[in-house]
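sry for the spam today, last one i promise. struct tokens for design, 378 residues
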């Protein structure tokens, strides 16, 4: 192998050449601010609306249900804080799962400091929300439920339809799903369902550019903005629109969803999962029905050690980097799945994509075998 092997696609993906071309073309061609009254503004506004319509169609939504943001984190913050502020006179209780991304967890925890009450829906050993336990947490004060579609640490897909079925009895609760890791792994129609009110996406996870996110907000649901100003994005996110980012995101989304059936090769995922499972000291943290993520650890070896050892061989994987910002008293997603802190520290994550070939994973396993023997001796 004479080229690097990139297996960190859940962290970010490489921009597709056609997406980059669209980004550059839009930057060069569109001078006008879409809010300007003159012709250049009108042209920009028309193209902005077109991009919004394309994104909406691909996500089973209407154009005015699509709000462009600066990324998945902003979309999550807007959904969560925006709901809390808009609905605080009706209640102050929020439920999130115990393994959400920090963009959700930290937003909800900040709201706790502002007088809101937060509960965590427990997950099982596979990293899936236990729906019956979740249902018990709902109370008259509950205004928001936020559950991710696909987990970014272990790759588990959440029972969104079952959670939605529980929430049918509570039509006033906003149901937000963080779908940042979901596209290409779970079919859009399986989570963009009627009972879902808000959904977050991020362009750089589907071969778009960094710095563009999408928040779907169902018509009729009310949230408050985080950013006030000129009233762009239906008054929910003021600032002059990132035209090149938005137009190229519409392109990236279309290209990616066209590939929906093979956003990653399940044969490669299965091979990797099976091979790793044959090593005595390997813990597989991902469930058997994981999506494109295979998270595992070698007992006694910290994740960082393995990441750097692979890096020396130009193979790029990651740890559960979100750990770094966690308070000492707070449990990691793996601990919430029932693993000990010692095992949780061993985690590394391989995340696949359509760019990965079987030969790369075979090479990965050769390197892994050498590292396993070397590290086991230490
Ligand atoms: C599940 C999930 N939510 C939110 C985010 C944040 O997205 P962004 O990097 O676009 O802010 C990520 C990024 O890793 C993620 O995996």
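last one done:
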């Amino acid at each position: 192998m004479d080229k690097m092997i990139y297996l960190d696609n859940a962290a970010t993906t490489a921009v597709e050449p056609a997406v980059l071309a669209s980004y550059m073309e839009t930057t060069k061609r569109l001078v006008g601010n879409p809010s300007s009254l003159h012709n250049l503004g009108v042209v920009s506004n028309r193209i902005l609306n077109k991009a919004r319509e394309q994104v909406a169609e691909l996500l089973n939504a209407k154009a005015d249900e699509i709000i462009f943001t600066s990324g998945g984190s902003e979309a999550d913050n807007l959904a969560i804080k925006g709901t809390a502020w808009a609905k605080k006179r009706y209640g102050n209780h929020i439920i999130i799962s115990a393994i959400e991304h920090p963009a959700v967890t930290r937003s909800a925890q900040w709201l706790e400091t502002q007088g809101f009450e937060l509960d965590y829906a427990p997950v099982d050993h596979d990293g899936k929300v236990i729906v019956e336990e979740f249902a018990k947490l709902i109370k008259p004060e509950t205004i928001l439920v936020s559950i991710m579609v696909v987990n970014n640490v272990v790759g588990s897909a959440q029972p969104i339809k079952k959670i939605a079925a529980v929430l049918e009895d509570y039509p006033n609760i906003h149901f937000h799903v963080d779908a940042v890791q979901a596209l290409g792994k779970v079919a859009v129609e399986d989570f963009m369902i009627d009972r879902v009110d808000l959904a977050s996406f991020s362009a750089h996870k589907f071969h778009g550019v960094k710095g563009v996110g999408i928040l779907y907000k169902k018509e009729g649901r009310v949230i408050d903005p985080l950013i006030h100003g000129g009233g762009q994005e239906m008054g929910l996110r003021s600032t002059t629109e990132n035209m090149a980012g938005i137009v190229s995101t519409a392109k990236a989304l279309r290209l990616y969803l066209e590939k929906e059936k093979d956003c990653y090769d399940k044969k490669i995922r299965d091979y990797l999962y099976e091979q790793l499972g044959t090593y005595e000291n390997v813990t597989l943290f991902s469930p058997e029905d994981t999506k494109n993520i295979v998270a595992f650890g070698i007992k006694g070896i910290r994740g960082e050690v393995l990441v750097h050892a692979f890096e020396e061989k130009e193979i790029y994987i990651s740890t559960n980097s979100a750990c770094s910002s966690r308070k000492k008293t707070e449990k990691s997603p793996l601990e919430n799945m029932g693993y000990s802190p010692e095992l949780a520290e061993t985690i590394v994550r391989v995340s696949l994509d359509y760019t990965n070939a079987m030969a790369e994973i075979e090479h990965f396993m050769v390197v892994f075998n050498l590292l396993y023997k070397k590290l086991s001796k230490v």
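The first helix runs from residue 17 to 29. ok im logging off now
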